[in-house]
UniProtKB/TrEMBL annotation:
Keyword set, alphabetical order: ATP-binding, Cell membrane, Membrane, Nodulation, Nucleotide-binding, Transport
Protein's UniProt keywords contain Zinc: no
PROSITE patterns: ABC_TRANSPORTER_1, ABC_TRANSPORTER_2
Highest taxon listed in the record's lineage: Bacteria
One family name in Pfam for this protein: ABC_tran
Molecular function terms, GO-annotated: ATP binding
Family the UniProt entry places it in: Belongs to the ABC transporter superfamily.
Domain ABC transporter: 2-232
Protein name: ABC transporter ATP-binding protein
Length: 240
């Protein structure tokens, strides 16, 4: 579903991504684990077309971001680290506006909004302004928005920052349902080891380079540590 080849991104003399290569299979729940400054957000900005990398290429569902970006991006949904909802509009109007941007027919948009709102427990709040919602429910709205176009690849960039443990768990559980039911591929960027412990696969990124890739157990073993957290901390400290 996603193939990154030799991706390099520089900011002046600083290298944010250093010839990064990785691939993700369809239907996998993959966590991109890295400390602050590892290059996670830069990678997501390239994956979503906000930046054109200095070198290398990205393929989404076999489509190159360099030569066929429009079709490649049509397969992607994203929840960015910074919230981007209109606080003064209701949940329903936020979602309908996004559906209109995606070109969804009105009847289909209404059906999808109702379905996803029910899945994430938002039906009773659809007419409330986003400003009135808790941080956890705002994130749920952003996730629903990202799912409206039925993406094949869902990108989550530090999506649980500021959320309480229950809201974090609800968000992760909702995504796992999406993986099971529709075969969506998820790439979840985080610096929280606890969010990586139950992933299908973990990618450890540090200073723009991939330090390890595999199941949580495989990454723990390859980096050397009794736990994933210990292995991650040791590896990033040594590589830093």
């Amino acid at each position: 579903m996603l193939k990154v080849q030799g991706l390099t991104q520089r900011y002046g003399s600083r290298v944010a991504l250093d010839a990064l290569s990785l691939s993700i299979a369809r239907g996998d729940f993959v966590v991109l684990l890295g400390p602050n400054g590892a290059g996670k957000s830069t990678l997501f900005q390239v994956l979503t077309g906000l930046f054109a990398a200095d070198e290398g290429d990205v393929e989404v569902a076999g489509l190159s971001m360099r030569s066929d970006a429009r079709r490649a991006l049509s397969h992607i949904g994203v929840v960015f680290q910074q919230q981007s909802l209109d606080l003064d509009l209701s949940i329903a109007r936020n979602l309908q506006f996004h559906a209109d941007l995606q070109g969804l027919p009105s009847h289909e948009a209404r059906e999808r909004i109702a379905f996803e709102a029910a899945r994430f427990g938002l039906v009773a709040d659809l007419q409330r302004s986003v400003r009135e919602l808790s941080g956890g429910n705002r994130r749920k709205v952003e996730l629903v928005r990202a799912l409206l176009a039925r993406p094949d690849l869902l990108l989550m960039d530090e999506a649980t920052v500021g959320l309480d443990p229950q809201s974090r768990r609800d968000l992760i559980d909702g995504l796992r349902d999406e993986v099971r039911q529709r075969g969506v591929t998820v790439l979840w960027a985080t610096h929280l080891v606890s969010e990586a412990e139950h992933a299908d696969r973990v990618l450890v990124l540090h200073r723009g380079r991939l330090l390890a890739s595999g199941t949580p157990a495989q990454v723990t073993s390859s980096l050397g540590g009794d736990t994933l957290e210990a292995a991650f901390l040791n590896a990033t400290r040594q590589a830093g």
